[in-house]
Design goal:
heterodimer; A: 379 residues; Aspartate Aminotransferase, domain 1; Aspartate Aminotransferase, domain 2; seven-stranded mixed beta sheet; three-stranded antiparallel beta sheet; 10 helices; B: 78 residues; alpha+beta; 4 strands; globular
């Protein structure tokens, strides 16, 4: 197997307990909330405990306010299209992924006003400009916790305080940080937190969710089977059922449940420290290579363990392909579904080669990646 | 970096189309491999099939015979 350094796309290597939990669930798990027999209850119990673990991890304070989705994109669509209307003004940032931007563009096409907070030349959010975007119709700030491209993290405490001060809803995309950087929804005044299960949480793909502050109502995107109130014509409004029409991905959530156990036992701080150490080793190794251009702010460790770079004028696709074919090192080139960030960094044409590190990477793998880049940079 | 060679690059509208094409190529021992879409063709996310240029005619015939969904064939140094 090659050296997998594309963990910002998905953490391919999972803890054994996650794999075992999925297999076990596929052998004995019924459909959660459909019936009261042991097979169904098995599913309900594991899923509920996963809600408890997520609620605890994110400082939400109520497991019932965690609704499962298939990924961050579904969670973000649910939040954006279920909270806002065409008469609203929403502030967001150029750091966002298309999973935020595209639902917002849909709202924009219906009449909503969207403002984009820019970044500086290191990809850091210009929070000094935030107030200039405020208007009487401003309803919310929607913001990623960390850029999937540069790894730069935003200060949720500062942004949450800004939202509280100006009575804005605060919607956070934690796709790149859940399980690694600390989040406290209550302390940081976060109204909605969207996460995916298959990145820093080390769960299976097809898992994710939306954490909703108590008292906040989101219009559901879907309605249908819920296992309760069968004779009602409307989908039940109680969380989490309100946002969970249809059978849940119980097998995947069982894996996520185990992954959350792994994270709790290991400690997000320990995981983050190791990932950042690998990132630092990589940066140290490549710093003398001529013609390497880095994108992002690497002066702080309060970031995701991502390094985005280019070698001279080489197409990022060409570099990434060479790394894959010659060295079996797997990275991500191109645009990373982050169009505004690339525009901001003037890399629309060239793209960037993104290296992203996980708990399961090793120092030896980083050494190999550094050597490969040294060779490639020689031409 | 490797020396660039002329290639016939086939692009697709969706990853699903690309995977369907790769599967058919494997079944019929058609030469080539999946690569990230080069910037000359598109700056966005995506996959492309890269085959030696001398295989272009064969690729076109194959695409036609299989009624395969694809976007375009481009000749490129890659």
């Amino acid at each position: 197997m090659g050296i997998y350094l594309d963990n910002a796309a998905t953490t391919m290597q999972k803890p054994d307990c996650v794999i075992e939990a999925v297999i076990s669930a596929m052998r004995h798990m019924g459909n959660s909330g459909r019936g009261a027999h042991e097979a169904s209850l098995d599913a309900s119990r594991v899923i509920f405990e996963a809600r408890e673990r997520l609620s605890g991890l994110f400082g939400l304070g109520n497991p019932a306010q965690v609704a499962f989705t298939s990924n961050s994109t579904e969670a973000l669509n649910t939040a954006i299209l279920g909270l806002f209307s065409p008469s609203d003004h929403i502030i967001t940032t150029v750091m966002e992924h298309n999973s935020v931007l595209r639902p917002l563009y849909r709202l924009q096409a219906q009449g909503a006003r969207i403002s984009f907070v820019p970044c500086d030349d290191k990809g850091r959010l210009r929070t000094d400009l935030l107030e200039t975007f405020l208007g009487p119709d401003t309803k919310a700030l929607i913001c990623t916790h960390a850029s999937n491209l540069t790894g730069n993290a935003n200060d949720l405490t500062f942004l949450g305080e800004f939202c509280r001060k100006h009575s804005l809803l605060f919607v956070v995309d934690a796709s790149q940080t859940a399980g690694v950087l600390p989040v406290d929804m209550k302390k940081q005044h976060i109204d909605v937190l969207c996460f995916t299960g298959h990145k820093g949480l080390y769960g299976p793909q097809g898992t994710g969710g939306i954490c909703v502050r108590e008292g906040l109502f989101i219009r559901p995107l879907k309605s249908g089977g819920s296992g309760v109130h069968t004779y009602l014509k409307e989908h039940p409004a109680q969380m989490p059922t309100a946002l969970e029409a249809g059978t849940l991905n119980g097998h995947g959530i069982a894996g996520l449940h185990a992954a959350l156990g792994f994270i709790r036992e290991t400690g997000p701080e320990t995981i983050h420290k190791k990932e950042i150490a690998l990132m630092r080793q990589f940066l140290e190794g490549i710093k003398e290579i001529p013609d390497i251009r880095l994108y992002g702010d690497y002066d702080t460790d309060e970031r995701a363990a991502v390094v985005a770079l280019n070698i001279g004028g080489y197409d990022s696709s060409e570099v990434s392909d060479e790394l894959a074919v010659t060295y079996e090192i797997y990275t991500r080139p191109g645009a990373h579904c982050a169009p505004l960030m690339h525009q901001s960094m003037n890399t629309v044409e060239q793209g960037m080669v993104r290296f992203s590190f996980s708990w399961f990477n090793t120092e030896k793998e980083v050494e190999t990646a550094v050597r490969a880049l040294c060779e490639l940079a020689k031409g | 970096m490797r020396k660039k060679e002329w290639k016939a690059i086939i692009t697709f509208r969706t990853t699903s189309d690309a995977m369907a094409f790769e599967k058919k190529c494997k079944e019929h021992t058609i030469p080539g491999r999946m690569i990230p879409v080069p910037r000359e063709i598109s700056a966005g996310c995506g996959l492309a099939w890269s085959a030696p240029l001398e295989e272009r005619v064969r690729m076109e015939e194959f695409l036609q015979s299989q009624s395969t969904a694809f976007e375009a064939i481009t000749e490129l140094l890659f």
